[in-house]
C-alpha cells in the first residue's frame, strides 16, 4: 500500500517534495501505527465486500473496518458472521492462488461484539486470519478488555500477526467519577500488551449518546464540552512520550455531494489556497485540522467521500518537515534553540524533539508536499482529473 498512489505519477512529481513510502500489514509496528489514515467502516452485511475492496471504487482506501457490532442489528448477526467468513476466505484464496499479494491488501480490521464472537471467528477462519491486520474492540474497558487482548496475543503466537485497536467510548471513561481510575488502569493494561496494540481509537458518538447530545453540522466535536473534556484526558494519559500510543480521531457523521462552501484551510498551511467544498466537507476539514492540532493521527470515517480530505490533511507541509529536520539535527549536535529557516518561529531541540520525531514518521507514510503546494492541491488532484492541468511545478 502507498498513500496517494491513485494520483498519476506526473501529478505526484508536482505535488510531493518527498513521496509517501510503501507499507503493508507486515511493516514494523512503530511505522504502521501512523498509517491507518481514514479508516472506513462498513457493515459486515454489505454486499460484495471483497469486490468493493479491490475494484477501485473506494478511491484512496488504505484501511477498512468491517463491523459486526453497532452497524448491524442483533437479528442480523448470524447471517453477517457467515457472510464475513465467506468473504475473508475468498480473499485468502486469492492470495493463495497468486492473484493477490498480501502487501497489496488494504489494512483490514474486524469490529466484533464480544470475545466469544472473536473466538468463534478465529476458529472458523483458521489460517485465513492472515488476511487481517487486526481487531477493533468496541466499548473497551478494564471490565471487558483483557479476554480480547489475550486472544489477539494467542492468534499472534499461533496463527498470524494480529493487532488490537481498543476503542475508548464507555461510560467508565466519560463519567468523571470513574474516569481517572479507569484511564490509569487502562494505561497499565495497554503497557503490558504494547506489542499487539497498534492504535487507540476514540468513540465520540457513543460518548455523546450517553448525554443525548449530537453535534450539528456547523460544530466540531471540540465544541461539545463534555466530549472535548474526555478527549483531552485520553490524550493526557496515552499521548505522553514515555508511554506513547497513536490516537485516532472520532468519526464525522455528515456527508453530501451538493451544497458548497468556501473552506479556508489556512489554519496550519502557509499560503493555502481556497477551494470550493460542500458544507459537510467543510465541517470535516475544520474538525480534522483540530484533530491534528491536538496530536490525533487519522480518523474513523463512515463514507467514502471522507477518505480524500482526511488523508490529504495528513500529508506533511514542507515548512513542518524542514522545522522537524532542523530540530532533530540540532538535537544530535547538542544544540539548544535554533531559528526556523522561515524566520517565523524558534525551534527548541528539547521541548520540540518529540513533535519533530512524529512529523518525520508521518512524512514517511503520507509524504511531504512541495513548499508551494497545499492540502487543496493534493485533494483536488486526487478527485478531479482536469485539475491536474493547474499543477505547474515551480522549480
Overview of this protein structure:
The protein contains 15 helices and 14 strands. The protein is an alpha/beta fold. It has an 8-stranded parallel β-sheet with strand order 8-7-6-5-4-3-2-11. The chain has a two-stranded antiparallel ribbon with strand order 1-14. Helix 8 runs parallel beside helix 10 and helix 11 (279-293) runs parallel beside helix 12. The longest helix has 20 residues, at 77-96. It starts with 8 loop residues before the first helix and ends in a 12-residue tail after the last helix. The model is unreliable at 259-274 (pLDDT under 50). InterPro entries: C-C_Bond_Lyase-like, Pyrv/PenolPyrv_kinase-like_dom.
List keywords for this structure.
alpha/beta; TIM Barrel; 2 domains; eight-stranded parallel sheet; 15 helices; 42% helix; globular; lyase activity; Pyrv/PenolPyrv_kinase-like_dom
Strand content: 5-15%
Just give the CATH class of the largest domain: Alpha Beta
Counted beta strands: 14
Number of domains: 2
Helix-strand pattern: HEHEHEHEHEHEHHEHHEEEHEHHEEHEH
Number of distinct helices? 15
- Report the radius of gyration as a whole number of Å: 21 Å
Distance between the termini: 29 Å
Strand order of the biggest β-sheet: 8-7-6-5-4-3-2-11
**Overall SS class:** alpha/beta
**The CATH superfamily title of the largest domain:** Phosphoenolpyruvate-binding domains
| Major sheet description | 8 strands, parallel
Fold-level CATH name of the largest domain: TIM Barrel
Mean pLDDT: 90
Helix content estimate: 40-55%
| CATH architecture label name of the largest domain | Alpha-Beta Barrel
Amino acid at each position: 500500500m502507498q498513500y496517494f498512489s491513485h494520483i498519476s505519477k506526473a501529478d505526484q512529481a508536482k505535488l510531493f517534495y518527498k513521496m509517501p513510502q510503501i507499507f503493508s500489514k507486515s511493516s514494523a509496528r512503530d511505522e504502521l501505527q501512523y498509517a491507518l489514515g481514514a479508516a472506513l467502516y462498513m457493515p459486515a452485511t454489505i454486499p460484495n465486500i471483497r469486490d468493493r475492496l479491490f475494484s477501485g471504487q473506494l478511491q484512496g482506501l488504505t484501511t477498512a473496518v468491517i463491523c459486526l457490532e453497532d452497524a448491524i442489528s442483533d437479528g442480523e448477526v448470524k447471517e453477517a458472521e457467515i457472510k464475513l467468513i465467506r468473504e475473508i476466505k475468498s480473499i485468502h484464496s486469492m492470495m493463495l492462488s497468486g492473484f493477490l499479494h498480501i502487501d497489496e491488501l488494504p489494512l483490514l480490521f474486524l469490529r466484533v461484539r464480544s470475545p466469544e464472537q472473536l473466538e468463534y471467528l478465529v476458529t472458523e477462519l483458521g489460517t485465513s486470519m492472515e488476511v487481517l491486520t487486526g481487531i477493533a474492540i468496541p466499548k473497551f474497558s478494564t471490565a471487558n478488555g483483557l479476554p480480547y487482548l489475550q486472544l489477539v496475543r494467542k492468534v499472534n503466537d499461533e496463527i498470524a500477526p494480529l493487532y488490537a485497536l481498543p476503542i475508548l467510548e464507555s461510560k467508565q471513561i466519560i463519567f468523571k467519577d470513574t474516569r481517572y481510575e479507569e484511564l490509569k488502569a487502562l494505561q497499565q493494561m495497554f503497557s503490558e500488551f504494547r506489542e499487539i496494540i497498534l492504535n487507540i481509537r476514540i468513540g465520540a458518538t457513543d460518548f455523546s449518546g450517553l448525554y443525548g447530545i449530537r453535534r450539528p453540522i456547523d460544530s466540531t466535536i471540540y465544541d461539545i464540552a463534555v466530549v472535548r473534556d474526555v478527549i483531552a484526558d485520553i490524550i493526557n494519559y496515552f499521548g505522553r512520550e514515555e508511554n506513547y500510543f497513536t490516537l485516532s480521531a472520532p468519526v464525522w457523521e455528515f456527508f453530501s455531494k451538493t451544497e458548497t462552501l468556501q473552506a479556508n484551510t489556512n489554519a496550519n498551511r502557509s499560503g493555502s489556497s481556497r477551494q470550493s467544498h460542500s458544507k459537510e466537507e467543510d465541517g470535516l476539514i475544520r474538525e480534522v485540522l483540530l484533530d491534528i492540532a491536538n496530536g490525533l493521527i487519522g480518523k474513523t470515517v463512515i463514507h467514502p467521500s471522507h477518505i480524500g480530505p482526511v488523508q490529504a490533511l495528513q500529508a506533511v507541509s514542507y515548512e513542518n518537515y524542514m522545522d522537524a529536520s532542523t530540530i532533530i539535527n540540532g538535537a544530535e549536535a547538542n544544540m539548544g534553540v535554533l531559528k526556523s529557516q522561515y524566520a517565523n518561529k524558534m525551534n527548541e531541540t528539547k521541548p520540540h524533539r518529540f513533535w519533530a520525531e512524529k512529523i518525520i514518521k508521518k512524512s514517511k507514510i503520507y509524504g511531504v508536499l512541495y513548499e508551494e503546494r497545499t492540502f487543496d492541491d493534493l485533494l483536488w488532484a486526487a478527485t478531479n482529473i482536469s485539475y491536474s492541468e493547474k499543477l505547474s511545478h515551480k522549480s
